[in-house]
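Researcher: Please translate sequence to structure tokens.
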Amino acid sequence: MENDIFKYIGIINKNYVFIDSNEKEVKFTKCRRELIKKFKLDNTKNINKWYRINYFIIKSQDYVNEFGGMGIYIISDMEILKK
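Model: Translation complete:
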């Protein structure tokens, strides 16, 4: 499991898109339903908020996402950061 800090960009093509502190875009293909509801990721008011995200990557050489990352990124847990 990996852990990093990301800024939420929004939902693009049914994926939850974030950028990390280096401005690299990361597309999460899956997220637990209770996290989507808790953090209201479907609400545009939450765009540009920062989150600490625990996630894992299912490695697949056959799958390259549109941002050039190899594998499927899945959110396991997250918390909003207060700035």
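Researcher: Any highlights?
Model: The first strand starts at residue 2 and ends at 12.
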